[in-house]
Structures are given as C-alpha cells and as structure tokens.
Amino acid sequence: MRPERSFQGFILALQRFWADQGCVLLQPYDMEMGAGTFHPATTLRALGPKPWKAAYVQPSRRPKDGRYGENPNRLQHYYQFQVIIKPSPPDLQDLYLRSLKAIGIDTALHDVRFVEDDWESPTLGAWGLGWECWCDGMEVSQFTYFQQVAGVECSPVAGELTYGLERLAMYVQGVDNVYDLNFNGREGAEKVTYGDVFLQAEKEYSRHNFEHSDADMLFEQFKMAEGACKKYLDAGWRDGKKQAHLMAQPAYDQCIKASHVFNLLDARGVISVTERQSYIGRVRDLAKACGEAWMATEAGGASALRVESN
Amino acid sequence: MPDLLLELFSEEIPARMQAKAAEDLRRMVTDRLVAEGLVYEGAKAFATPRRLALTVHGIPARQSDLKQERKGPRVGGAEAAIAGFLKATGLASLDEAKIQRDPKGDFYIALTEKAGKPTVDVLAEILPMIVRTFPWPKQMRWGAASAKSTSLTWVRPLHSIVATFGIDTEEPEVVPFELNGIRSGQTTFGHRFLAPAAIDVRRFEDYEAKLQAAKVVLDPQRRKDIILAEAKTLCEAQNLALVEDQVLLDEVSGLVEWPVVLMGSFDAEFLSIPGEVIRATIRNNQKCFVVSDPRTGKLTNKFILTANIEASDGGLAIVAGNERVIRARLSDAKFFYETDLKTKLEDRLPKFDNIVFHEKLGTQAERIARIVRLAAEIAPLVGADVEKTKRAALLAKADLVTETVGEFPELQGLMGKYYALAQGEDASVAAASEDHYKPQGPADRVPTDPVSIAVALADKLDTLVGFWAIDEKPTGSKDPFALRRAALGVIRLIVENGLRLKLKSVADTHAAKMAGYHDSKPTDLLMFFADRLKGQLREQGARHDLVDAVFSLGGQDDLLMVVRRVEALAKFLDTDDGKTLRAGVKRASNILGIEEKKDKRVYDGAPEPSLYRLDEEKALAKAIAEVGPEASAAVAKEDFAGAMTVMAKLRPAVDAFFDKVKVNDDDAAVRENRLKLLNEIRAATRAVADFSKIQD
C-alpha cells in the first residue's frame, strides 16, 4: 500500500506514522459533524490537565459545499485526518514535516511553508494560533495551537493538525479531479476510484441538502437537540452541585447534533442573515456548557474526583 | 566599546507582523539601555519568518558610578530627623556624614556612591523583561509550560535565544538569563530545510555571515531587493514586465528566509477573465506576482512565485505544483465570473431585502432606495441626467451579491462595472458602479462624470445623515463606519468638481425623508464637515483658522463658496492692507469688548451723524457707508477677491480714526457714538468674514 498509489494507502501511511509517535488511533466518531475538531477526542480531550495523544480520520459533512459532483475539488462529504497532542510537544513542526515525508512529500523537492492562519470556531467557542501549511502554493494542512476550546482556556495547550486528505492525495497522485483518485491502488478492472465510491453520494446529498431536506423536521430537531443537551447537562451535576459532572459526553453529542442540523438548515437557505448569528450563538452556548461540564469529569481532571480516587 | 547581539528564534512569525516587531525590539532595548544610563552608538533590528534579531553596538561595558550628595538636618537637630536621615541614606552613624557650613548654619551631608553595574548584568535583567512584555498584536501559550498561568507568551513558540555581549577582539560573554526553560546562549539554526544544523555565533558580524552561509538572508530589505531583481530579470528575459506590488513584496519577503524566484504560466484561455480578477486570485490566494506585456499593458499568462528553497530539481516540481493550484483557482474565478454574467444586475436586487445594512438603518434594499431618491435630487444640481442617475444608483451595489465579489470583496464596484457593460448599460451608468465608492482616501481619484458624482454624493450623504440620525458619530479615534472618510469624500467631490450644493438643505431634506428615525441634527453634521475641511486645509498647509472665520458668519453650507472665500481671505491677509485692516478690526473689537463689559450694555445701532466732531469720524463713517454695500454686492456676485479689494478701502479711514480720535471722550454722548462707529467697522467686515476668529 504505497501512499502515492492509493487513497487508502495514503491514510494507512498517516495512521502508521502517528501510531509510531504514540498516538491512540481512534476510529471516526459515529455522528455527523462539520470537521474533525468536533470529535470529542479533540473538543473535550483538549481541555483539562491530562496528557492526550490521538489520531483519527473523521468524515466531515459540509452540506453547503455540495456541488452535485460537478466541481473537481469541492465536496459536501470528505475526510479529514486529525492529530491532537496535549501538551503540544516542542518538535511538533518537525513531526508534521516528517509525516509529510511519510506520505511521499520530499521537502528537498517541494516548497513547504507555514503561512499565518489564526483559527477560530464561533460555534465551538474556540480559537488558536497557527498556520495553513502550504506545499508548492497549495494549502494541505491546518496547524493550530489551541488557546481556548468550548470557552475554556487550554491549560496546557494542545497542538492540533488537520490534513485535508483528498487534496493531499490528489497532489501526491498527480490528479486534478478528486473523483479520479485511485482509492484501492489496483489498476485495470480492479481499480476503484474515489468517484466509484462517492460520486453518486455527492449527487444524492446535494439534492437532499439544497432541495429536499425537510426544513420543518430539522427546525424541530434543532430544538430537540438543544433541549436534550441542556437537560442532560442539568441532570449530570452530581448532587446538583457544580463540582462533579457525570454525563458530559452524552450532552456533548446533542451539541454536535445541533451543529450539524444547523448546517443543514443553512444549506437549505431557510435561515436569514440575522438568525444565522443567533443559531451560531445557541450552539456555542451548548458547547461552552459542555466544556464546563467536561472540566468537572475525571478525564477533564476535576479536582473533586481526583481527591476521591486517591 | 562592546556590542550586543540578540536573536529570538521561534516558529514562523506572521509576515505582516515582522517589520513592526523588529522596530519594537530595537526601540524597547535601546530605550531601556538609555534609561539605565548606557548610551549606545547605533542599533539595527532584523526579522525573518523564524527570527527577530538585534545588534546594538558601542555600549559602555559598565554603568558609571553614581555619586550622590544629600543634605540632611542641622547639626544638633531633632533626633527623629537624624534617624530618618540615616535610614534614608543608609549611613550606619553620623560619623559617616560630613558636616557642611552654609549661611544658615552647620548641616550633615551624606556622600553616597552607587556603584555602576556591569552592562552584561543590566542586560540580563532587561532582556527577559522585554521578551515578557513584548507587544505582539496576538500572542499564545504553548507546550508543557502552558499548564501554568504565568507561562511565557510569544507570537508562536519560542525555541532559542542568542544573547552575547563583548568587544570584537575577545570572546564575547553570554548575557545569562532563562525564560520558560530556554537558556540564553550562542547557538542558532540555519534554514529549516537547506541548512537546519545548529550554528555557534559570537557577534553580529559572524552571525550575519554564518546565516548567509546557512541559507538565511537576515535583512528583509535584501530579501526584497533579491526578489524584485530576480523577478524583473525573469520577466525581461521574455520581453515581459513585472506588475510591481509593494504590499505583496513586503508580505512575500516575510514568508521566506532564502528567496528563490521562479516563473510559471497558466492556460491563456483564462485571460478572458478581467485582469483585476486574475490578479486578485493570484495575488491574494497564492501570493504570486502577475506579469504584463509592456506593448499592450495587458496581463499575460505568466506569474512569478517566490519559493523558500533551492529545490533539487531546480524548481520544476514547485512550479508545476503552483501552476496546478493557480489553474484550479482561476477555474473557480472563471466559473464565478461566467455564472455572474448569467444574472442581470437588477434581478439580484431582491436579495438585498434580506441583508441588514445596520439594525437601526434598515436593510440594504431600503438603503439602495434612499440612495436612488437622493441621487435623483442631486442629479440636476450637478448637471447629471436624472434617469441615468437613478438607474446607476439602483445598480451600483448589485455586485455585492455576485460570486466574484463574494470571493474578492476588494473588487466591489469594479465587477459591477464589468457586469453593467456586459448587459448593455450606458457607459456612465456602468462607470458609477465603480466610481460611486470614490474617493476612498486622500490619494484616490475623484470621479468627474456627473452621474458618478451624483451617486457618490448620495451614497456618502445617506451614510452620514443616517448615522447622524441614530447618533453613531465618530468619537476620538473610533470611526467604525468610516464617516470621516465619507465626509472628506463629499468635500473633495464638491470642491474638485466646482459643484454648487446647499449641503444643509440637501441633508435636511434627506433626513426628513428617513422615516421612522430619530431627530437628526444637520447643523451638527455641517460642523463635522467644517472640521474635516479644516483638517484638509491644515494638511495642505493652508490656514485652517480662516474656515472658522467664514463658518462663524452662519448659513455657510455651500462648501465651494466657503473654500473660495477662505482662499480670497488668505490672499488678502497676506497684503499690507489686509494685515493692517485686520489689526484695526481687532483693535475696534477689543475696545468694544472692554467698554461693553464695563458698561454692561451693547453698543449696536446706527451712530448719529450730528455727533461726529472730527473729520476722521466723518471720513470713517463715509468709508463704511460705501464699503459695506459694495463688499456685500461683490460677495453676492461671488467675487470674493473683489470684496477683499473693497475692504482694503477701509484701511486708511480706520488707521486715521485710531490715530486722531480718542474713543473714550468726556462727553458721554460722543463716546457712545464713537463706540457705535467701532461696531460699524466690525459689522462692515462681516460681509466677508468674522475677523475676530482669525488667529494671529
């Protein structure tokens, strides 16, 4: 499985590289989300004092970016490869560059650059400083030192790397159209392309996202997810005191759900400009409340729970 | 004398922050040195993407000793005073104090000497403090140390610090300090890819040379020179011309330590897109320069990129990669442009119903309707065709909802012009899309086509009247809606095009029609214009106080006339007649002011001719009687120079009056009459300006 021959070989090479650095290799989170950052392994685990290293592929849903399969590099469903390491190691840039080598990008031949890009997610109440990583003028990754997530200061700071897998693989394979990517590395009759796997889905979901998704149901789902998130958060505080929380993760699932439903509504064009801000604010409020709850859990390093386990 | 070398080596510093950071570092270190009594000979700072560096040469090796003499209490003075003196000076007992005699008696004197510290110790204190308080626009925490709230912040993770101090004939000393676990030393690193090994450095000279050998050009200006020269050479070799771009050059030089300039090309079919769109795509997204054909001045299908490495294949892969990205970007741009062309501008207008301009000023659609109405009112006043103006105002903002402008906001207006021409609009109507935003700043072009002028004025006046109505005026340095720029734009449009416009009545009418909004204060708005006009005249080196002298007359809302009057007044005040007359008017005003205050009454009303005792009084009265109406007549004809010439006729009579006539006559009736005559001088000169507002 050579990384430059197949999409899956490419993913495997990245996984192997980061596994070798001691990361836990997770599988995608089983919910729809707009970016790998929403995975609780990043959003929640970035918070609190405990060290954490993880790498995983996350299918990312961007309903608005659907192009009915007609655009060579815009998709409403694509893959991100996500690495999160807390605290950020001093050689994170070097590790990143070595990972590029592992997927076939030779820095003696290619011009790799770190170009300022301050990352901010208004829906997650999160921001960080870092770069877009350029390879020969193409943005191939996002590199961020998280400063705040879900409204909570990161202490210590985690480093996050996000690779745009399709784009990088297209570069390495030398194809201009994402649907031409060789997926399985075989040639001739056995060759399976990205288009074979995803083109029909792109068309179907574009129709769904822009023309047919049930807006009334989605509005209702948003309210339900928002309500459930708050309900689980309230119920999770042990003894009703804000010292230990016992249900942060199920509550956060509902925040992810609300965020994705909002993205679907947005793509459907049923949210006005002014309402848009208010929806983003509502998701952010959920994320912040989940962050606060997470900090009161064991994995979040809550002092109340630390004392008990001693 | 010894030199300091300081280098702060970090992960990539944003290009836009580098120049200011280098300057801040130089300023902070040298200011602190001077504050510590260490006067240096010279300093220079540098920045690359990965380092800030500073050399300060000719610093004394140590601070001078500081001798202090302090006078204490009288010999035999109160015990408490002596105890306080000993404590304050640090003397062990009075035996250590000297006694000095002066005319008031014998006093204790403490002579203390504060030994100067070695400079290296001073530096070891001030350098860490400067790093900790460095004014980055945005900074961050990182790594294990960030678990503590006191951890160091920097623009990006800081990796190493070089800090050496010494003279060139000796091995320099390391200025010892530690920050976030980083110890200062003598080690730096070369180019990230071409020469990543550690380098030991001693002082600035070998530091710069060793970096050069390790593929790092330290001086940003040199990197710029290299990029520009190589880019031009590549273009000239093909008889092409680089489209120079200083802002882009500044940015690109901050993205590389070892600039390698290469040329790439794209498919010529993309040249069907407007040149500005190609340039915006290549420049903003790819940080590459575009290239033109010097014979036609048009863009060619070449571009210039600046890589950070000397690639092992001579740059083939880098060029190929950049070409692929640019091809994809231009495909997007072409798609946007062609998609935009399929929808007429007027068909885009309903979208503005859903776009809020400002929560208190309604939607963009409402704003466009207001601009159309106002532009139609202004059109006849500026010689523009009313129907064309209405059409232009209706379409001027439509490109804001096109794909291309969504992608490249800086092309707003320009794209509107292209789309308007493409759908067969009149040339003036199309031009207004671009030109109604102008002038954007003091260097920007002022439109001259009447249609563009009408829409530009309407756009800016609607903004000003609107924000005045909801009381969102600029305060201090805060001007989030760029209202000062809008007002200056109005002034330049009017003055440079020689337009006659009753600004107050136009603004009042518009404010009255802004249904549902609060009371506006157009007078207030007029003063805002007066202030901008003053500022503009001040920048041109003209006398801004004359603006006050004219506005003080009241009812001055025709900016062109204000400017003309100010110009004539300035010329007049440069003549002997002008200077003397102004002095006379001032003298009259002063005397009147004093006497009116003393008598607690105002001396207005016509003087009584029968009370004139002296010829000079009669002559002055006669001159005023002639000059007043003549000057007013000239002003009515807008002949301000003429009005000033008439004013000059007052001078001999005023001079003679003050020479021969005693105002405060013993006869109260005569005195009153003379004061009234003085008032007449003041009144007559108000035909041209309020002379009392003119500064000396």
Structure characterization notes:
The complex is a heterodimer of chains A (310) and B (696). Chain A folds into two domains: 7-209, Bira Bifunctional Protein, Domain 2 (BirA Bifunctional Protein, domain 2, 2-Layer Sandwich), CATH 3.30.930.10; 215-309, Methane Monooxygenase Hydroxylase, Chain G, domain 1 (Up-down Bundle), CATH 1.20.58.180. Helix content of chain A is 42%, strand content 20%. Chain A has helices spanning 7-20, 40-43, 92-102, 165-173, 194-212, 215-236, 248-268, 273-294, 303-309; strands spanning 24-26, 52-61, 77-86, 112-116, 119-121, 126-135, 138-149, 152-153, 159-164. In chain A, helix 5 packs across helix 7 (248-268), helix 6 (215-236) packs antiparallel against helix 7 and helix 7 (248-268) runs antiparallel to helix 8. The longest helix of chain A has 22 residues, at 215-236. Chain A starts with 6 loop residues before the first helix and ends with a helix. Chain B folds into five domains: 3-61 and 118-213, no CATH class; 76-114, no CATH class; 220-341, no CATH class; 348-555, Hypothetical protein af1432 (Orthogonal Bundle); 575-693, Isoleucyl-tRNA Synthetase, Domain 1, CATH 1.10.730. In chain B, a hairpin with a 2-residue loop joins strand 5 (98-102) and strand 6 (105-114). In chain B, helix 5 (220-236) crosses helix 6 and helix 14 packs across helix 16. In chain B, strands 1, 2, 3, 7, 8, 9 and 10 form a seven-stranded mixed β-sheet that branches. A four-stranded antiparallel β-sheet of chain B has the order 13-15-16-14, sandwiched between helices. Chains A and B meet through strand 4, strand 6 and strand 7 of A and helix 8 of B.
